[in-house]
From TrEMBL:
Keywords: Fatty acid metabolism, Lipid metabolism, Lyase, Transit peptide
GO molecular-function term, one example from the UniProt record: enoyl-CoA hydratase activity
Organism of origin: Rhizobium mesosinicum
InterPro entries the UniProt entry points to: ClpP/crotonase-like_dom_sf, Enoyl-CoA_hydra/iso, Enoyl-CoA_hydra_C, Mitochondrial_ECH-domain
Similarity field: Belongs to the enoyl-CoA hydratase/isomerase family.
SUPFAM superfamilies for the chain: ClpP/crotonase
Name under which the protein is recorded: Enoyl-CoA hydratase domain-containing protein 3, mitochondrial
Purpose of the protein: May play a role in fatty acid biosynthesis and insulin sensitivity.
Length: 277
């Protein structure tokens, strides 16, 4: 397993003090943002989350990742107070701004490149880079009271990096509507736009997400790894090229031990035993 970087809000080692809470059960790794009140994605939070994801990549005990949050805000995005404080730096904050936005980009790419599915579990507001985080996950399930926005234009700063993920999750014109107006949309609108998969009552959120996660975790880990990588790669290709690439992936997939086991189990009417190879 890759080394997991652990940052704390204080010097103790209690779970309650962790910026990202970690819980692993039945192959489901739950990473919970714990930076109240806004769960801002400051440098420490992003580094901690990045470390956890990197550790999960090679951990055979992890089959799927859920990103959730504590409190009433899923994430308010970047920490504006932290960013503003660095305007006093000799370079007017340029180096720190570059570090922050580059780290955010690396974090979002880490999610899409992770060889395991990632589900966003949203209860509350997801704004700016918080909305970017939602859009970067493979699946997103939210409560009926959750809200979403990319409000950079309201403070004179267009949400350019959130736009990368949002424009790939939502339909183009709806993404531009969010980015140009900065207005908050409700859960139903977010589903219509394509930002979330399902909306559930608050009391059932964790239950529904856990059900989805359990179903996915029961599948071949090798098939999930190959399939997720291929899905994102083919999206960037012309259709003909995408079919050629996908066909080659199917051939490689047929040669895996899990495909042989899965097809044999299907034909033999038995439950497959995945080896992850």
């Amino acid at each position: 397993m890759a080394e997991i970087v652990s940052f704390r809000k204080d010097n103790n080692n209690s779970g309650e003090g962790a910026l990202v809470l970690r819980q692993l059960s039945d192959g489901i790794l739950r990473l919970t943002l714990n930076n109240p009140p806004a769960n801002a994605l400051n440098i420490s939070v992003m580094e901690t989350l990045m470390g956890e994801l990197q550790g999960a990549a090679d951990d055979k005990d992890v089959r799927i990742v859920v990103i959730a949050s504590t409190g009433n805000v899923f994430s308010a995005g970047h920490d504006l107070k932290e960013l503003t404080a660095h305007r006093a730096d000799e370079d007017d904050g340029v180096a720190f701004f570059e570090e922050t936005f580059a780290l955010a980009a690396d974090l979002m790419l880490e999610i899409s490149r992770l060889p395991k599915p990632v589900i966003a579990e949203i209860d509350g507001l997801a704004t700016a880079a918080g909305c970017q985080l939602v859009a970067s996950c493979d699946l997103a399930i939210c409560t009926d009271t959750s809200t979403f926005c990319t409000p950079g234009v309201n403070i004179g700063l267009f949400c350019s990096t959130p736009a990368v993920a949002v424009s790939r999750a939502a339909h183009r014109k709806q993404a531009m509507e969010m980015l140009l107006t900065g207005e908050t949309i409700d859960a139903s609108t977010a589903k219509d736009f394509g930002l979330v998969n399902r909306i559930v009552p608050k009391q059932y959120l964790t239950q529904v997400v856990s059900k989805y996660a359990s179903v996915i975790a029961s599948k071949s880990p090798e098939a999930l790894r190959i399939g997720k990588e291929a899905f994102y790669k083919q999206l960037e290709m012309p259709v003909a090229e995408a079919y050629d690439y996908a066909a080659s992936v199917m051939v490689d997939g047929m040669l895996t031990g899990d495909a042989q086991e899965g097809i044999g189990a299907f034909l033999g009417k038995r439950t497959p035993e995945w080896k992850g190879e």
